[in-house]
Amino acid sequence: MSIEVVEIGKRFGDFVALDDVSVSIPTGQLTALLGPSGGGKSTLLRIIAGLESADSGRVEIEGVDATRLPPQKRNVGFVFQHYAAFKHLSVRRNVAFGLEIRKRPKAEIRAKVDELLALVHLEQFADRLPSQLSGGQRQRMALARALAVEPTVLLLDEPFGALDAKVRKELRDWLRRLHDEVHVTTVFVTHDQEEALEVSDKIVVINEGRVEQIGTPDELYDKPANDFVMRFLGPVTQVGDHLVRPHDVQIDLDPAAPADATGVVSRISRIGFEIRVDVTVSDAEVVTVTITRNDLLALGLETGTRVGLRIAPVGTATLLDSKASYA
């Protein structure tokens, strides 16, 4: 159930969608393809599924060269952002569809559909039409339908992109739990950094048709390979020549203490449980620092306060030299 993508290239006219992309996805792993819109992640997913053909390179699924196999021969389940439900069929019939066209025995279909509806918590909605479900319920139905044929690989293209933030959060928690139960090798496309960091075992960052970095969520967040990955996977601010996470900058009121920069508090904003402090260190440079409410009260900060800024020690802070060149 492993996937090997080897030196895949794909062009649409003069546009290079994928440029010599290689990715290895182990059996049973939940992998996110993360990147900005137009970066190539959905194209790569469609090539793995067989819905697009590559101009060069190969795709192996379970050690078998699947590069020229049609989608139906690859044993993959595919879930799109828009559910593509059969509107005139009940939830039960939608989930059963793939099994029915494979001519499975009726008793087997009934048992499998019951099992899947329970797995995705839709058993009480089995006889409803898709139009009678919420967006999140329809997406769970789509996932159940994809799992019904027991695919070796599950591919999800922006599966929660059409949903509101609260439902997205609920569904990504549910997807992680579902994956831990069924252990099917899963690849999902997203441009949502928080979604990728929270759900996946490994993240492949794709930008302008190239792989920028592959690693675990911790590796990518704490040890980004370059400026793009650091900026894309979380907030950054600049202190001198260094890019750093705002929560890795410390504020000091002692004018005699060593500092990486000094300045004046120009704005204080509360963003939920965080306090965002903007410190103007020069006419052209503002450093953003993230602290807790308790830290704000302890420091007694207010607009106009002069402060020193110190980057947390190397090893505890995510730090990049903004003037460095990354190949």
TrEMBL record:
UniProt keyword annotation of DNA-binding present: no
PROSITE patterns recorded: ABC_TRANSPORTER_1, ABC_TRANSPORTER_2
SUPFAM superfamilies reported in the protein's UniProt record: MOP-like, P-loop containing nucleoside triphosphate hydrolases
GO cellular component entries: ATP-binding cassette (ABC) transporter complex
Top-level taxon in the UniProt lineage: Bacteria
UniProt keyword terms in alphabetical order: ATP-binding, Cell membrane, Membrane, Nucleotide-binding, Sulfate transport, Translocase, Transport
Alphabetized GO MF terms: ABC-type quaternary ammonium compound transporting activity; ABC-type sulfate transporter activity; ATP binding; ATP hydrolysis activity
EC number(s) recorded for this UniProt protein: 7.6.2.9
The ABC transporter domain, residue ranges: 3-233
A Pfam cross-reference name: TOBE_3
NCBIfam families linked to this entry: 3a0106s01 (TIGR00968)
Name the UniProt record assigns to this protein: ABC-type quaternary amine transporter
Origin species: Frankia nepalensis
Name of the gene this protein is made from: cysA
